[in-house]
Amino acid sequence: MLEKIFPLLYDPDYRKTVSIVLTIIFASGMILFFLRKTGFYFVSAWASIKSWLFAAPLMFLGFALPDPWPLAILVLVAIYGAKAFFQIIGMFHRSYFVLICYAGILALGVSCYYQRLEVYNAMPMVVLAVSCLVPLIRNNYKRMIQYISITLLSFIFLGWSFMHLGLIYYFPSGIYQIMFLLILTEFCDNTNLAISRYFKGPRLFRKIDPKRSLLSTFISILLTLALAGAMRQLLPDSAEKYWLTAGLIAAFAGVIGDLVMTVVRRDAGVKIVGPFILGRGDFLQRMDRLIFVAPIYYYVMLGLGA
After folding, report:
1. Which of 192, 213, 211 is nearest to 202 (CA)?
2. Is 118's pLDDT higher than 70?
């Protein structure tokens, strides 16, 4: 019975992968637990790892479900992220636009399931077109350009971009590649935050994110590449060009995604919208690094013929 519900749990490769990843998380958690009182940055890194001590087992159980349930989970995560985005902007009460964004994300999930890339890539225009009808239906013009723009931005970031993970899911060993990206992006961010106090010097973007220095970001990227090499068995091809490219995308594009969402938060004057389980930040802060990583990884890997 359990094998029918969680078939991947009976796959030796999946169990091995889960064991390795959970060991890394628990080992990192133990180190950060003893260092958490030595400074603010270790406190923040420990808070994030603490949340993953709870979330990672749930994630692995969800990914172990038969198709299309892992895809459905990605859709729900995207919708929840879009909800958080609308709350940050202060537009969640505009139900017409919010529901249009949600419907667009659901359509992306269906497009992924049936492998209709042409429909997937047409969805931003569909969401824009339907959003433009709202002022006509409501016979109202006030602030509608702003609402339409924010709806499209939310859909592009938390829908179209993020849901490339749904397209990656149908790659060979796609579920492993998604785990690969999740682990690397989270590791890069936590490492950068934990070591930034020890590597001063110029800040990467002082006005946007004063915590992370240029040197700490560079070192965290190097460490992320080392982890990518250590976990290259998650990729369908462990050749150097694949894991190195994937590691670079996860590190660099992840930093960009985090910074872009920081710009949104700072401009809106909202730092956190609801807690993320037990740890640092909110749900959207666990997603933001993937909004650039997912589409770049998808198209680069297609180009490499992975």
Report:
1. 213
2. yes
